[in-house]
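Pair request: fold both.
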Amino acid sequence: MTASTIEKRDDLISYLHAAMALEHATIPPYLTAYYSIHSTTNSDAAHIIRVAAVEEMLHLTLVANVLNAIGGKPDLTRPGFVPSYPAYLPDGEDDFTVDLRPFSPEAVETFCKIERPGKAPGARLLRTTDTGRPLLASSPTVEGMRFYSIGEFYAEIIEGLEKVAADDPGLFCGNPALQVGPEYYYSGGGVVTVVSDLDSARQALRFIAAQGEGLDSGIYDADGELAHYYRFRQLQLGRYYQVGDDPDAPSGPPLSISWDDVYKVKVSARLADFPADSELARVARDFNADYGAFLALLTRAFNGQPDLLQDAVCDMFRLRDGFNRLVRNPLPGSDGLHAAPTFEIPTAAGCDPEASRSAGETAQAVTR
C-alpha cells in the first residue's frame, strides 16, 4: 500500500487547491476546440464538448465546497492557477501533453487521455521526469512525485480526508454559509453536494472522479450519465452509446463529424506569436483580461456570493465574441494558421474583475 502523502489539514488544503487547478485546466482546451468549429456544423461534437466544459464547472464547485468545509479559501486568481500550455497531466506514461488545439482527431485523443479510466498497476505515486513543462497533478506535499491518473489523485485525497478526520474531530470547521448549494447550479449532469462532514466530502470527490471516468466505474456514472471519457470515445468511434453496450462497441445512432469544418488555429498560441502592437494582439490581450474577470467572478462565488455561480457559467460562454475575433482571423507568420486565445492571464485581471471586464468591453471586432 502506498504511504499517505496527506498527514494534516494543511496537506489537504494543498491538495484541494491542486484539484481546483486540475479541474480548471481542462476548460481552456475544451473551449478552444469548441469555438474552433464552424457555426452550424458538427453539432454532435459541439454539444459533447460544451457539456463537458460546463460539468468541469460543477467539479470546480464541488472541490470548492470541500475546501471551504475544512476551512480553506478557494482562489482561482492566484498566480500560476492557469497553466502555461502545453502542460502535462498524469497518466502513467508521459505520452501526451494538453495543448490548446482546434477540434481535430488529435484534440479528441487528448481529451480521451485526460479522462481515460484505469487504476495504477503498481504504485499510485510515480517519480516525475524533468521535462520543463508543468505537471498538473503532482503531489503538492512530496516533491518530485506525480500520480498515475486523475482517479488516483482523487483516491489519495479521499484517503487523506479519512485519515485526517480520524485524527482531528474538528476538521470540518468551515463556515456553512460559504457552501454553494444545488439551487445555484442548473447546467449539465449532476448536482452540487453541500459538504459538512466526511461522508458528504467523499460523495463530492467520488462524483468528480466517476463523472470523468477516473475511477473506472463503468460507462455510466452513478446518476446514469455517460462519463466524459466515453462521451469523447463516441467522437472517435462515430456512434453513440446505448445502455448495455460494450465500451469499445457503441451501437447507437451514428455521429456526423466533419473534421474540415474547423478554423485551423495555431496550437497553443502565445502572445509572443502575435505581431507587436497589432489589432489582433490587442484582442488577444483583451480576451485574457476577460478570462481573468471570469476567474475572479468564480472566486467570489466560492467565497460567500454563491448566486454569482450562474453568472459565471454564462460568462464562460459570453467569451464567444472574443474567441470569434481571434479564431476567424489568420495569424500573420503562421503559414495560414488562425489566431486563438492564449490564456496568459495578467495578474491585474484576476485581482480586479471590474477593470478586466471594462477592458474586454472596449475590444473591437477584427474583420476577416
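--- second member of the pair ---
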Amino acid sequence: MSHELNTGGDRGYLRIATEETFATRGQVDAILRSLRDGTADKGIRSLWGFYGTSPSQRATEVLDRLLDLGTQRIAHMDAAGIDLAILGLTAPGVQPFRDVAEACALARDANEQLAAAVQAHPDRFVGLTAVAPQDPEWSAAEILRGARELGFKGAIINSHTQGQYLDEPKFDPIFRALAEADQPLYLHPSTPPDAMIDPMLEAGLDGAIFGFGVETGMHLLRLITIGIFDRYPTLQIMVGHMGEALPYWLYRLDWMHQAGVRGQRYERMKPLQKTIQGYFQSNILVTSSGVAWAPAIKFCQEVMGVDRVMYAMDYPYQYELDEVRAMDAMDMPLETKRKFMQTNAERWFKL
C-alpha cells in the first residue's frame, strides 16, 4: 500500500475522523497537580504519570500534539488525507477533580478554546462539548450551550467520574439535555477506577491495550441494562475501538441477560423493550478508532448495520499513515466504504 493520501475526496469519499482528542494547558496542569498532591487515583497516576512527565519520545510527542489545535494538527491531517476531525477533550476530561467549581471552569475553558479553533478552521474541525458530570445540572446546561451557542455537534464524557457511572439516577439531567438538543454522546474511555484496576495495573494492561475497553464496555452495558434507551428512545451513544469489544459478545450478552431477567437474580436487571443487539442496531454507534482492521470493521457492519459504523483514527495516540491506506484498501463496496468514511458521520453528527 503506497498510494498518496489526499484530502478532497479523490477516492470517492471524504475521510472524517470521528474520535480525535485534544487537551488544554489548564486541564494538564490540574492533572499534574493531582499527581503531586496525591489526589490522583491509580489510573491517572499510571496514564498521566507517563504522558505528563515522561521524557520519552512517545510521551512528549503525544502531549505536544494534544495541546495543538492549529497548524501542526492540520498538517498531520493533510499528510493523512483526513478532511475533517471530530474533536473531544482527552481522557480523563475534568472528571477526576474533586473541586466541582474548578472542574466546571476547566470544562468551560476547554469548550471556549475548542470553539475558537472550530471558528478558525470550520472546514477541518468539529467540536464535542466537554462537561463535568460532578455537577449534572451544570453539565446539562453546558450541553445545551455547546449545541446552541458554540455550534458543537455532540458531547463527550470520559467514562466513569470518580468511580461513578452514568446509569446512576443523579446523572439523568445529562441525558435529558442530550435528548433536548438531539445530539449524541461520545462515551470515551478513561482509566479504570481504583476498585477494578489492580490486576490490570500490575500486568501493564490498565491503559489502551485492555483496561480502557473493559471499563468503558462495562459502562455502556450498565446504561443499556438499566434501560437508558427505553427512557430516551432517540438517544445515540457512540463508543470507539470497534465498540470496546461488545459487538463480538452480543450473542452471549443477550442470552445471559435474558436468563438473568427470567431468574430475577438481580434487583436492577429488569425486562427491556429490545434485546441488547437491538439497541446496538438502533441506539449505539461504533467507531474504528485505533482498530484499522478490516475483519473487525466488517463484523460490526454485519451485526449492527452499515449505517452504524464510522471511521476514526484516534489521533494523537495512534497516528499511522499506513492505517489510513489500509482503510482505503478494504475489500468493500464503494457505497459501504463511503458510509464508513464519510456519510455516516455526516448523518449522526448532523454535519
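Observation on the second member. The radius of gyration is 19 Å.
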